[in-house]
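tokens incoming
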């Protein structure tokens, strides 16, 4: 058995904290952050998922649209999806999970107008 004396430099450094979504009023999430978020919750095509989110909310986790009825990054429409808590939809991860469920695990984007209109396409090839 090899024994090594542990000095201050041998102490483990804490892992860097994951990038947190911006605080209300702060800068929006970047396309790279949206892609990482989409991948972390299990979207099969995180580039597409992030493109839809960027088209829907411009990366703002606190976005409210459709006259106060759609919330967060993927603009989850509360009247169509009362199973989701509107306050929690302002949380990036909760919103991403909701979008994953609504999109049938990332394979049906037709509930999103920015998908149907093609507005998301401008973010597909964009450099994150």
């Amino acid at each position: 058995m090899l024994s090594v004396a542990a000095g201050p430099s041998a102490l483990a450094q804490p892992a860097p904290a994951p990038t947190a979504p911006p605080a209300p009023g702060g800068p929006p999430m970047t396309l790279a952050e949206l892609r990482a978020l989409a991948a972390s919750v299990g979207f099969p095509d995180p580039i597409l998922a992030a493109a839809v989110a960027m088209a829907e909310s411009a990366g703002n986790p606190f976005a409210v649209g459709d006259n106060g009825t759609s919330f967060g990054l993927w603009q989850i429409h509360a009247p169509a999806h009362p199973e989701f808590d509107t306050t929690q939809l302002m949380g990036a991860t909760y919103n991403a999970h909701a979008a994953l469920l609504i999109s049938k695990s990332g394979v049906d984007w037709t509930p999103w107008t920015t998908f149907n209109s093609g507005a998301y396409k401008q973010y597909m090839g964009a450099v994150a």
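note: The first strand starts at residue 64 and ends at 65.
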